[in-house]
Amino acid sequence: MKFLVSIFLTALLGFTFGLYLPWWSIAIAGFTVSFFLYQKPISAFLSGFLGMFLLWGGLILIRSVSNDDILAHRISLFILKQDSPYLLILVSSFIRGITTGMGALCGSLLRSLRKAVN
Question: Quick check: 113 pLDDT over 80?
Answer without folding.
Answer: yes
